[in-house]
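Lecture 7 notes: from sequence to structure.

We start with a single chain of 540 residues. Read the sequence below before looking at the structure.
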Amino acid sequence: MKPIELDLMLNYRYLSDLNAYRDKLLFIDTIADEKNNDYTQRLHLFDPLNKEDSIILEDTMIRYALIDDKIMILKVSGMMETDIYDLFDKTKRGFHLPLAVNSIVSLNEDYYFIETEVDLKAIDYHTFDNDKKGEYYKFLEDEEDYLVLDEYPFFFNGAGFINKKRNNGFLVHKKDHSIKRITPSTMEIEDVAIGKDKIYFLANDYQSMKGIFSKIYVYDASKDRLEILYDNKDMFINKIVMIHDKPYAFASKKTCISGKSIYEVRKGALVCVYESEYMFYNSVLSDCRFGKFKNHVTANDDLYIINTVCNRSRIECFDGRSLVSVTDFEGSVDDLAFMDDKLYMIALKDLHLQEIYQVADHVVKLTDLNAGVLDDRYVAKLEKIDCFNLDTIYGWVLKPYDFDKNKTYPAILNIHGGPKNVYGEVFYHEMQYWASHGYFVIFANPHCSDGRGDEFSDFLKHYGTTDYDDLMAVVDEALKRYPNIDAKRLGVTGGSYGGYMTNWIIAHTDRFKCAASQRSISNRVSDLYYSDYSYDSTYE
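Now the structure, written as tokens:
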């Protein structure tokens, strides 16, 4: 059996963008292209009944949308230009839009609804002729050596600088492709739900300082009118969905880091229909994912949601009043789709890389895209080392490759980011690599982690206090259970919140001989306006 090496990741296939199309499943798999410093993607059309898999498109980066029973491909053709065409149309005529299209859906017989990023320095770019576009590009070229930052937020992780950028809404006519703006240019759309001839927006309209409370808007296409449905002054809302053709919101009355209950959206009010302390998304971490995932799908007037409970994510079904668990296994549900009264998911399960599964009385694996890649490799088993510090703290240890009970080994404490994320029983390349190269690996979910309710995950309460004690308790427990760990050769590392805690730990104890603080908070003052968390959550 061989150890896991760093470059083994170049052979992993990452699955994403799962959707139902007619009687088949669409999904994308991605593999790293080291030679070109890029990624290669393949769009699959998969028959779950016969397990027949067809690759219908291969490209560097693929974006697709299902519109009017067609697979539409979106190709960026310029800084703010997009070509859209039917994948199975041999002529590939399609149509061109002078918009940086983020998403496109069919609203009704006449219109597509499009979300697009808009530069406030060129609000009406879609109306520019070639001369005016040239002037705009010249303006950007002249500005490329510096940035003027005069808004908050001005930066977001993964997006870079977002100063003077907004996600706006447009209608595009299906026949002549004429474009009509339906939201103000200063409005940032955060989430969308499509009803019958109506579009519901969770959005924040601001000039220079984004407020902490977003409002809910509705656009009525039959009346060509946008109005505020809920003028929010005290609710943290993070999603809007449709159930039984009614809009519902995931929201909290506490803080933006609290669990989200489910509310029916009415004119001027949110009516709670289900109380929850858990966030409706997948917060189980892994470094073996790439692509676009969704956390819910509507089918048969029910809503299927991915939720994180304890150390795993699972699918739950909400019928408008009650929530019922559909899956419950150690691992991670990354994406889901519903077709022919059957539920399908992309999942990390049994320490395997991602595959597609059918959800039935028991979970059935349908694909083997990553078959063989971990064969004859040392995949360390996750050994639980729960301990107690105010609450039960769940932790794990990985033993090193070729473990010899007569030898001692160094150990690494790895701390996750978030902090409202969790480690779960899934394959994690980085930690497996360490184990393959002679280290014990210790990791856990201290206070501040997700999946245990508001009190447990309240990082404003636990930052640098209870969470520190939790992590030290887990290390103590690991040393007690594994005498082969050399207590004089301990290292600590982590990214984001894990980096912050690494900084905190080495300022409060000298038990660790090596520390690597990654993308961390090292200055709480600058973090106030530079963090992806809004300014309301940094201090009370």
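The CA atoms of residues 131 and 137 lie 10 Å apart. Keep this in mind for problem set 3.
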